[in-house]
Write a structure and sequence with these properties.
CATH superfamily of chain B: P-loop containing nucleotide triphosphate hydrolases
Largest interface: A-B, 26 and 28 residues
Strand order of the largest sheet of chain A: 2-3-8-5-7-6
CATH architecture of chain B: 3-Layer(aba) Sandwich
Helix content of chain A: 40-55%
Order of helices and strands of chain B: EEEHEEHEHHHEHEHEE
Radius of gyration of chain B: 17 Å
Distance between the termini of chain B: 23 Å
Number of domains of chain B: 1
Helix content of chain B: 25-40%
Low-confidence stretches of chain B: none
Number of helices of chain A: 13
Number of helices of chain B: 7
Mean pLDDT of chain A: 89
Largest sheet of chain B: 6 strands, mixed
Strand content of chain B: 25-35%
Low-confidence stretches of chain A: none
Number of strands of chain B: 10
Oligomer: heterodimer
Number of domains of chain A: 2
Mean pLDDT of chain B: 90
C-alpha cells in the first residue's frame, strides 16, 4: 500500500501544470459551491426566519376541513375569515403543548380583510388578530418603530409604516375597522393605534397588514372566541419540524380532535416559494459545477491512462493485479480531489467570512426582497465547508473510475506494445 | 524437468478484417537452468512467443505450461501471481517506472508479492549485485542506458524467479555495456540455475547461449 500511495502521489506531479490546472478548477468550483450554499442559506434565513418568527410560526393548527368552503386546502395567502374556526382556542393550545413538549408556546390568530378608516382617509387592510399575551413568545420578531405593543382588553392595533402614512395615523389615533361578520352582516369596531410594527427582513412583505387584538377581530366577525389558526413556536429552532407536526396530528387522531397540524413549509406562502426557487436554482448550479469538475478530472485521468499505457503493461508484467492498477489511478483521483476539496473549502470559507463582514450588496429591488434588506450577510457553517468538498472527492473518484477501469482491463501484452 | 513447455501454440492478431498469424504451431520445451536464445528476424514472432511464455498473452490455440502449471486454467489474478512469483522480465526499452527511484523500482515486485518484511534490504542487495550500489536514490532519468538495464535486471531477479524472460535486452546498449550485462546474466544463470530465455538479434548473445532456437514466419526453423 505504501508504494501504491507513493506511486499515485508522484504520478500527480509528473505533469505539474496539468495537475495544477485541474486542482485549480476543483478549488474554484468547490469554493463557489461552498459560497453558494452559504448564500442561499443566508437568503433563507434573511426571509424565512423573520417569517417564522413574525407570521408563520413553526406549526400551524387548523380546524379539520377548515377550508372545505373555500375549495379544499388551507393556504397562507387565502383570507381566513371564511375558514371553519377553532372553538375555545386556549384549551386546544394547552392540549397541543401538553402532547408535544418540543413546542414552546402557542398563539390564537384570526385574520380578516377590513376597511380601516381614520377620519376621511380609508384603505383596505388585513387585520391579524392575535392573542397579545402570547405575542412575545410566538412572534418575537414583531418589533416596534414607535409606540408600544397593545395589551389584552384595550383593542389596540399596530400599523405598519405604509398604512400609518396612508391613513395619516399616529400612535394614539383612533381608527374604525369596517368589515363583514361571518354571516355576512356589516360590522365595525374601534381600534386605538398603540404602535408602528416592523419585522426586520420582512419589510418588503408588510403589505397592508396590521396586528391587532384577536378579541377585536372576533367582535368584528361576531364569532365568539373562535380562532382561524393556532400558531406554535418550537423550542429547538434547528430541529426538523415535520416530526413535530406528525406527532401533533397523531395526538389529534388518537384523541379524536377535529384539527390538523401543518408545518411552516407546508403552509407555503411567498416566503417558501422564493426559497424553493432559490434552492432549486442553487442545486442546478451545484449540479452543473459538479459536472464541469467531473469532466475535468475524467479528462485528466484519461490522459494519464493513455500516456502510461506501456507503464501499465510493465506493472502487470511484474505481477500487479488488475485491482492494483485500478487502485493506483483511483488514488491519484482521490489525492487530486482531496487537495482540491481542502483548497476549495478554505477558499470558500474565506469568501464566506469576507462577505459575512462586507455583505453581499443587493443590486435590485428584487434582490432586496430576497436579501431582506440592502445587504446579505452569509455565515460560516461547518456543514457547508465539509459536505460539498466531501461530495466532490466522491465525484472525483467516480469520474476517475471509468479511466481507471480501462487501465485495469488492458491486456498486458497489448499495453507493452503500445506506442 | 522442463520449466517451460509450449505445445502447438498459435497466435493470430486481428488487424481490422485481416487475421495476421504471428505464431504457427510452435512447440518448445525449455529445461530448468537453461540459457536459451530465441533468434529470428523482426516480425518472426519472437516477442509473441515470449509474451505467451510470460503469461502476458494467451495463445489462439495450443498449450503453454509454466513451472508445471497450464496457464489456460488460470484466471487473471492467478496469472498475475504466477508472474510475480515465477517469472522475471527484462525489456529492450528497460521499462522502469520513471517516478520511482532505482531502489523502489527493484523493490516494487517484492511489495506486490507481499510476504515477509525486508524487501528493501533485498532490493538493495539486488542492486549491489548488478553493480549499482550507491545509485539507490537515482531516478531512471538520472541513469545511463546500461545502468537502467541493470536496474531492470535487478528488478527481474529480486524475486528469485524460476524463469527470466529477456526481450532483446542488449539491443539498446553499446557493445561494451551489452557484453558486461550478458556476463552478469550468465553468471547468475551458472550460480543460481535460473532459466534465461532471450529473444535476440545479437550474435554475442547467440554465441553464449546453450541453445538457440530460430523462428521464421512464426515457425521454428529446423
Amino acid at each position: 500500500m505504501r508504494l501504491l500511495l507513493t506511486l499515485a502521489l508522484r504520478n500527480l506531479f509528473r505533469h505539474k501544470r496539468r495537475t495544477a490546472l485541474t486542482a485549480s478548477a476543483l478549488v474554484l468550483g468547490i469554493a463557489l459551491m461552498v459560497l453558494g450554499r452559504a448564500w442561499t442559506a443566508a437568503m433563507e434565513t434573511a426571509v424565512v426566519e423573520p417569517a417564522r418568527s413574525g407570521t408563520l410560526g413553526h406549526v400551524e393548527v387548523f380546524a379539520k376541513d377548515a377550508a372545505a368552503d373555500e375549495g379544499g386546502s388551507v393556504s397562507f395567502i387565502m383570507p381566513q375569515n371564511n375558514y371553519r374556526l377553532i372553538p375555545d382556542p386556549p384549551a386546544l393550545i394547552e392540549r397541543v403543548l401538553r402532547a408535544e413538549p418540543r413546542l414552546a408556546a402557542g398563539l390564537a390568530r384570526l385574520m380578516v380583510g377590513a376597511l380601516l378608516s381614520n377620519g376621511d382617509a380609508s384603505m383596505e387592510v388585513v387585520l391579524i388578530g392575535i392573542d397579545p399575551k402570547a405575542r412575545a413568545a410566538v412572534y418575537p420578531a414583531v418589533e416596534l418603530r414607535a409606540g408600544r405593543h397593545f395589551v389584552a382588553g384595550e383593542k389596540g392595533i399596530l400599523l405598519n409604516r405604509g398604512v400609518a402614512k396612508r391613513l395619516g395615523a399616529t400612535v394614539g389615533s383612533t381608527l374604525v375597522a369596517l368589515g363583514n361578520t361571518a354571516d355576512g352582516r356589516l360590522a365595525a369596531v374601534k381600534l386605538t393605534v398603540t404602535g408602528l410594527w416592523v419585522v426586520k427582513g420582512l419589510e418588503a412583505y408588510e403589505w397592508g397588514a396590521c396586528y391587532t387584538d384577536i378579541a377585536a377581530v372576533q367582535e368584528l366577525m361576531d364569532v365568539g372566541d373562535g380562532a382561524g389558526v393556532l400558531v406554535f413556536r418550537q423550542r429547538d429552532l434547528e430541529a426538523p419540524v415535520a416530526p413535530i407536526a406528525a406527532s401533533v396530528n397523531a395526538a389529534f387522531a388518537r384523541d379524536g380532535v377535529p384539527a390538523v397540524a401543518y408545518t411552516w413549509e407546508e403552509m407555503g406562502g411567498p416566503f417558501i416559494g422564493g426559497m424553493l426557487v432559490t434552492r432549486f436554482i442553487a442545486r442546478i448550479m451545484d449540479f452543473v459545477m459538479a459536472i464541469i469538475v467531473a469532466a475535468g478530472v475524467m479528462n485528466t485521468a484519461l490522459m494519464s491512462v493513455f500516456e502510461r499505457t506501456r507503464e501499465v503493461g510493465t506493472l502487470r508484467a511484474v505481477g500487479a493485479r488488475r485491482s492494483r492498477i485500478l487502485a493506483i489511478f483511483l488514488l491519484e483521483a482521490v489525492f487530486l480531489g482531496v487537495a482540491g476539496a481542502a483548497g476549495g473549502a478554505l477558499a470558500g470559507a474565506g469568501l464566506i467570512l469576507f462577505f459575512g463582514r462586507a455583505g453581499i450588496p443587493a443590486f435590485s429591488e428584487a434582490q432586496r426582497y430576497s436579501y431582506g434588506g440592502d445587504y446579505l450577510y452569509p455565515t460560516l457553517h461547518w456543514g457547508d465547508v465539509t459536505v460539498v468538498p466531501a461530495m466532490m472527492v466522491v465525484i472525483c473518484l467516480l469520474a476517475a473510475f471509468g479511466p481507471a477501469l480501462m487501465a485495469a482491463r488492458m491486456r498486458p501484452a497489448e499495453s507493452l506494445r503500445y506506442v | 524437468m522442463a520449466s517451460v513447455q509450449v505445445e502447438a501454440a498459435t497466435k493470430d492478431y486481428q488487424l481490422g478484417k485481416t487475421t495476421v498469424p504471428a505464431l504457427r504451431g510452435v512447440s518448445l520445451a525449455v529445461e530448468s537452468g537453461e540459457f536459451m536464445a530465441v533468434a529470428g528476424p523482426s516480425g518472426s514472432g519472437k516477442s509473441t512467443l515470449l509474451n505467451l511464455i510470460g503469461c502476458l498473452d494467451h495463445p489462439t490455440s495450443g498449450r503453454v505450461v509454466i513451472a508445471g502449471q497450464d496457464v489456460a486454467a488460470l484466471d487473471d489474478d492467478a496469472l498475475s501471481d504466477l508472474r510475480a512469483r515465477t517469472l522475471g522480465f527484462i525489456f529492450q526499452t528497460f521499462n522502469l517506472i520513471p517516478v520511482l527511484s532505482a531502489l523502489e523500482n527493484v523493490e516494487f515486485p517484492l511489495l506486490l508479492r507481499g510476504g515477509p518484511h525486508g524487501g528493501r534490504e533485498r532490493a538493495r542487495r539486488a542492486l549491489d549485485e548488478v553493480g549499482l550500489a550507491g545509485f539507490e536514490r537515482h531516478r531512471p532519468d538520472e541513469l545511463s542506458g546500461g545502468q537502467r538495464q541493470r536496474v531492470a535486471v535487478a528488478r527481474a531477479l529480486v524475486t528469485d524467479p524460476v524463469i527470466v524472460l529477456a526481450d532483446e535486452p542488449t539491443a539498446n546498449l553499446d557493445s561494451a555495456t551489452g557484453e558486461s550485462l550478458l556476463e552478469l546474466m550468465l553468471e547468475i544463470n551458472r550460480r543460481d540455475k535460473t532459466t534465461f530465455i532471450f529473444s535476440t538479434h545479437d550474435p554475442r548473445v547467440m554465441e553464449r547461449a546453450q541453445r538457440v532456437v530460430r523462428l521464421v514466419d512464426g515457425k521454428l526453423a529446423a
